[in-house]
């Protein structure tokens, strides 16, 4: 097209060329991103858990903002999401939430968001309009496929299964039967729960899948820690340190502390536009040879 335009200018052909180049650039970006997702579990669905940090209502409200951000991100990616358990705050926000993201490379992409997220803003809950700092963390593990689940053996005697009534902020979303299920794995103390499905049997099945995924992740982390000890190396990011800051006052900026990517349009990021941040972290990992 470019050669044709050199010989004979054509406005319509020029517009088509620009459009074709944009499509090509988008496709190349997707292919480049795919090359960064070659881990054993990167193509799996993802089990994500949000936890509010210390700070009461402030952090619980921040955790709910992050939940909305990740749900919007999944929607932008064309992924399906199951919100399996939500523990609501006493006044506002959420104390924790567990959701499963279904889609190609869901775990590989979302694993780039694992860590502590920090918010700085003028508090809407402070009558004096003071600036507050809040923290919330995101944990992400791969949801095992059927063949992978078969490798995880669980003794029924090691489980304590409790049923309870689903809870919520009120209205039609509150279940009126004891269909919610909480499973405690006694040897490790891992607790999983599901209250999203309509029946107790369905909730138990989902909770068991999450439990198997968490037990498998526990074994992987033990192995990784053993290898790190043998290498005598420190991890790139210490556990519990913030990976990203979202500043709403006195200025507006999102900064990823791992890659130094900065975005001034905070609202766009909080609305789920995380592609630039995720891709930068995946590239950093690839350059450093870090596992997910």
Explain this structure to me?
This protein has 292 residues and is of the alpha+beta class. It folds into three domains: 2-35, no CATH class; 46-143 and 237-288, 2-Layer Sandwich (Alpha-Beta Plaits); 156-229, Double Stranded RNA Binding Domain (2-Layer Sandwich). It is 38% helix and 25% strand. The chain has eight helices and eleven strands. The protein has helices at residues 2-7, 11-35, 57-77, 106-110, 146-149, 200-231, 266-270, 275-288, and strands at 46-52, 80-88, 94-102, 115-122, 131-142, 159-164, 180-185, 190-194, 242-247, 253-256, 262-263. The chain is globular. The two termini are 43 Å apart.
Overall CATH class of the largest domain: Alpha Beta
- Taken from the alpha-carbon principal axes, the silhouette is globular
Strands ordered across the widest β-sheet: 2-3-1-5-4-9-10-11
- CATH topology call of the largest domain: Alpha-Beta Plaits
The pLDDT mean sits at: 86
Biggest beta sheet attributes: 8 strands, mixed
Q: What labels would you give this structure?
A:
Double Stranded RNA Binding Domain, three-stranded antiparallel sheet, 292 residues, 3 domains, 11 strands, alpha+beta, Alpha-Beta Plaits, eight-stranded mixed sheet, single chain, 8 helices
Q: Helices, strands, pairings?
A:
Blueprint: H1 2-7, H2 11-35, E1 46-52, H3 57-77, E2 80-88, E3 94-102, H4 106-110, E4 115-122, E5 131-142, H5 146-149, E6 159-164, E7 180-185, E8 190-194, H6 200-231, E9 242-247, E10 253-256, E11 262-263, H7 266-270, H8 275-288
Parallel strand pairs: 4-9
Antiparallel strand pairs: 1-3, 1-5, 2-3, 4-5, 6-7, 7-8, 9-10, 10-11
């Amino acid at each position: 097209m470019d050669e044709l335009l050199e010989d004979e200018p054509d406005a319509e052909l020029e517009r088509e060329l620009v459009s074709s180049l944009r499509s090509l650039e988008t496709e190349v970006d997707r292919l480049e991103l795919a090359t960064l997702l070659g881990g054993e579990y990167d193509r799996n669905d993802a089990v994500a858990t949000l936890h509010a940090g210390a700070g009461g209502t402030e952090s619980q409200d921040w955790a709910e903002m992050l939940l909305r951000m990740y749900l919007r991100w999944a929607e932008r990616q064309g992924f399906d999401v199951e919100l399996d358990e939500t523990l609501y705050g006493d006044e506002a926000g959420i104390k924790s939430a567990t959701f499963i993201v279904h889609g190609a490379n869901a775990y590989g992409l979302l694993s780039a968001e694992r860590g502590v997220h920090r918010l700085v803003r003028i508090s809407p809950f402070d009558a004096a309009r003071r600036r507050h700092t809040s923290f919330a963390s995101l944990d992400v593990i791969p949801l095992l496929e059927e063949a992978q689940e078969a490798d995880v053996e669980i003794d029924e005697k090691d489980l304590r299964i409790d049923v309870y009534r689903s809870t919520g902020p009120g209205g039609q979303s509150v279940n009126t039967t004891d269909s919610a299920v909480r499973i405690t794995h006694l040897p490790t103390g891992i607790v999983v729960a599901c209250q999203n499905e309509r029946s107790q049997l369905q909730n138990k099945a989902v909770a068991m899948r999450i439990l198997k995924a968490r037990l498998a992740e526990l074994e992987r982390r033990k192995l990784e820690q053993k290898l790190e000890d043998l290498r005598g190396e420190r991890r790139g990011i210490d556990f519990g340190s913030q990976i990203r800051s979202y500043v709403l006052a006195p200025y507006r900026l999102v900064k990823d502390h791992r890659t130094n990517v900065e975005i001034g349009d905070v609202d766009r990021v909080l609305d789920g536009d995380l592609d630039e941040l995720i891709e930068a972290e995946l590239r950093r990992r690839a350059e450093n040879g870090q596992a997910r």
